[in-house]
Write a structure and sequence with these properties.
Blueprint (H helix, E strand, L loop, with lengths): L8 E6 L5 H14 L3 E5 L3 H17 L4 E4 L5 H13 L4 E4 L13 E7 L6 H8 L6 E6 L4 H8 L4 E5 L11
Parallel strand pairs: 1-6, 1-7, 2-4, 2-5, 3-4, 5-6
């Protein structure tokens, strides 16, 4: 998952319903297909579960393994997930702040996806990114805040904008 040694550090900006999750799913599949691992961090258990419920079955159909890790994950399942991550048996991890735990260690993390990145602190984002060796980073937002815009202006973050809804998509209330 390399572009000539260049590491992606990109903000994907788009309203709710524009397809940010679909873009993230494609990136997750590419990472898993390359024999490496990916992690999606969402700010709430509900959102992390939505990612797992929407994207997980697609990954499974493609022969890729995934798991969901939140604060509510039972201890036995949590230990199984930790072991599978360390061995490289698990391709994609969806989770909340629970993925930041010291016990979460990846064999080869190549992609970090952070949804609603403004809801995480700089140290939290850095902590997850440091679990890999220069992983690609995709942060997503429907509502960029001034700090995010400053990252774009000062060149630390490239930006992609989805500025229209997919054909046939109904308006989100």
């Amino acid at each position: 998952m390399c572009d000539g040694g260049r590491v992606m550090n990109r903000l994907l900006l788009g309203d709710v319903g524009t397809g940010k999750t679909a873009v993230a799913a494609c990136a997750l599949a590419v990472a898993a297909d390359s024999g490496t691992q990916a992690c999606v961090m969402a700010p709430t258990g509900v959102l992390a579960r939505q990612y797992a419920d929407k994207t997980g079955p697609l990954l499974s159909q493609a022969g890729m393994s995934w798991a969901l890790l939140t604060g509510a994950t039972p201890a036995a399942e949590r230990e199984r997930i930790h072991a599978q991550l360390e061995s490289g048996e698990l391709d994609v991890l969806f989770g909340t702040h629970a993925v930041l735990s010291d016990n979460v260690a990846f064999k080869h993390l190549s992609l970090v996806v952070i949804d609603e990145q403004h809801r995480f602190g700089v140290n939290q984002r850095s902590s997850l990114i440091s679990k890999g060796e220069k992983p690609h980073v995709l942060v997503m937002s429907a509502t960029p805040i001034p700090r995010t815009l400053a990252l774009i202006i000062y060149g630390d973050l490239d930006i992609s904008v989805i500025d229209e809804m997919p054909p046939g998509r109904q308006k989100v209330d």
